[in-house]
Amino acid sequence: MVKMLIDVDTGVDDSIALLYALNHPEVEIVGITTGCGNVDAVQAAENTVRIIELSNTKKEIPVVVGANQPLNGTWEGPVAWIHGENGVGNVLLEKGNFSYRTDIKAEDFLYEMLQKYPQELTIVTLGRLTNIAMMVQKYPESTKLVKNLVMMGGTVNAPGNVSPVAEANIAGDPEACDQVFLTGMDITVVGLDVTLKTRLRKKHVEQMETYCSERCKPAVQYMKKALEYYMNGSRVQNYTPDNCPLHDPLAMVAAVVPSIVKIQKRKARVECSGTYCRGMIVTDLREKPIEAEYISFALEVDAERAINELMSVFWRE
């Protein structure tokens, strides 16, 4: 059983990652925090509770609204052309009985959960690392309570998607990522080096629709609709006519099945200034590297296995 704390900015790919985790028999989600990115933090929380409702889970999972600005500067606004005006491909999800919390700060909630489950929790981040950095700032001892952290973000060898060298989650708050990199936590980065190689195609969606269990039909129908919008955005961004990269879902799959990716440990920091390089992950392979901690970077992936693992939870009974 993998016990998880998840941090999201729930857009389309976050929602698919969440549905995978919510339907996986060996995943227990103890809490979810939200931040700005694809949408604002409140919209991300609203989307998250509706995705939980859609999954037909019986357990109430606490969802806490987190940071709506990066550590420095201001949030640049939603990415509607990729994720839709509401963040989930403009699909209208029904509001159910679940609600999100605003009575506690995300960093306090994260620390509270880590104290409750010391060295048991895998933190999975699908957006910026602002909430995690704020927890580390306020509770430096929290890093010793984390089992491991798996994050979607960054790139080492692949081109960036918001600049020549930077990926959106890191570029959105490079100071937060750099601070988290310096904590010494067991961190695995699942970035564009592997997500761009893992493509969800229309035929995969059709397979899920054909073979999904009765319980999962509402989730699969939602994914089909949301992915129509998302793949259109991917067509513009990635020049792909009938597929999209698996960004957040691949990170979630790797958190559950680590052998799907091959990693390389490198000392790494994040560039926090510069016109062209802000948000770039800088790794140092020299014999005498920069002062930094070793970070595990996913550089290879078994893409077919990852797709099959993602789809399989929707036809399990």
UniProtKB/TrEMBL annotation:
<dbReference type="GO" id="GO:0005829">
    <property type="term" value="C:cytosol"/>
</dbReference>
<dbReference type="GO" id="GO:0006152">
    <property type="term" value="P:purine nucleoside catabolic process"/>
</dbReference>
<feature type="domain" description="Inosine/uridine-preferring nucleoside hydrolase">
    <location>
        <begin position="5"/>
        <end position="306"/>
    </location>
</feature>
<dbReference type="GO" id="GO:0008477">
    <property type="term" value="F:purine nucleosidase activity"/>
</dbReference>
<keyword id="KW-0378">Hydrolase</keyword>
<keyword id="KW-0326">Glycosidase</keyword>
<dbReference type="InterPro" id="IPR036452">
    <property type="entry name" value="Ribo_hydro-like"/>
</dbReference>
<protein>
    <submittedName>
        <fullName>Inosine-uridine nucleoside N-ribohydrolase</fullName>
    </submittedName>
</protein>
<dbReference type="Pfam" id="PF01156">
    <property type="entry name" value="IU_nuc_hydro"/>
</dbReference>
<dbReference type="InterPro" id="IPR023186">
    <property type="entry name" value="IUNH"/>
</dbReference>
<dbReference type="InterPro" id="IPR001910">
    <property type="entry name" value="Inosine/uridine_hydrolase_dom"/>
</dbReference>
